[in-house]
Design brief:
mainly alpha
């Protein structure tokens, strides 16, 4: 089974909720039904200057 694909807009919404609102990554991930490691990858990509969408694109 392949991993679900999330839109760039959704990834950005999740990342900005963590970065701008200083919410804990695990809490935000859980509220969206996501794995914290996945969200962590999105945040790390954003901090490196990548957009959240490009951070996880295969």
């Amino acid at each position: 089974m392949s991993a679900p694909k999330y839109s760039a807009e959704f990834k950005e919404q999740v990342v900005l909720e963590i970065v701008q609102k200083s919410r804990p990554m695990a809490g935000v991930a859980g509220s969206y039904g996501l794995v914290a490691q996945t969200v962590g990858n999105w945040v790390a990509g954003w901090r490196r200057g990548s957009t959240p969408a490009s951070a996880l694109m295969p």
